[in-house]
Amino acid sequence: MNTRRSVTLLLALTLALPASLQALTFRLPENNDSVVGDNLIMRTRYEDTFVAIGRVYGLGFREMMEANPGVHPWVPGEGTEITLPLSQILPQEDREAIVLNLPEFRLYHFLPEKNTVRSYGVGIGREGWQTPEVETRVTGVAANPSWTPPASIRAEHAAMGDILPRVVAPGPDNPLGQYAVRLSVPSYLFHGSNKIVGVGMRVSHGCVRLYDGDIEELANSVRPGTPVRIVNEPVKAGWLKGKLYIEVHPQLEEDRGSPIDFEGIINGALQRQAEHTISVDWDKVKLAAREQRGIPVDITVDEELESHLVSADDE
Q1: What φ, ψ does residue 107 adopt, rounded to 5°?
Q2: Are residues 86 and 117 in the same domain?
């Protein structure tokens, strides 16, 4: 059986598995490297959607869209080749914390005692209800939480003819899902959801949504006092085995058009591993900046190819 048929079969089997298997867990790289995982190429079936595929592989809707420009997310079609963006550059923040990168729609839970990092796709606050950039900490975990909608949300729903109760009891109608991780910043939570479509989108009133299996895993592994950093980094740079990579995501809508210091980000990465004397291929940087596919791209000049081209010019 060829590789592509194997991947299609793997997806068909995996779609029948419980949602609790979707977390991405990586061993922390050695030598201060920061690129983890491997992308996967697969061919879709007629009934596949980005939401269904993403749920299996722990990927959010926008991640799937960015990695597969031009492919219809709801009807990709029979036999369409798509990329599953399962490779990521770890954020540079404190690796004894939870780090949520808003433009990436991804949360990283570093577990240094296990030498691992868990990576979760998330949904965040929509425009006007943005999830804040903040340093905070975990204060507690609630299983089967009730939801007390604030007056502003009750008023918003009432204007649409939807009258919310003062308290929504645990159950299938509760938008918090089965678990909620409470933070020291008031009114914001990491929680599950009764609507999986929201993962990887901007649909909440500021809270952070995870797939049910992911929030269960996170809730059972965090402790009160765990630092949480919510950052806004559409561009990341990091190393893998002596090569420099860059990962570019579209900016959040309210930031579109703001300048990004690509040179500063890349120079910062170069300084983190100054022992590597490499040259940066700026054409590759420009292409990654233009495409914004959210996939780590090797921007290291191929010294062997460059040497060959120079030799050819000298002949």
Answers
A1: -115, 135
A2: yes
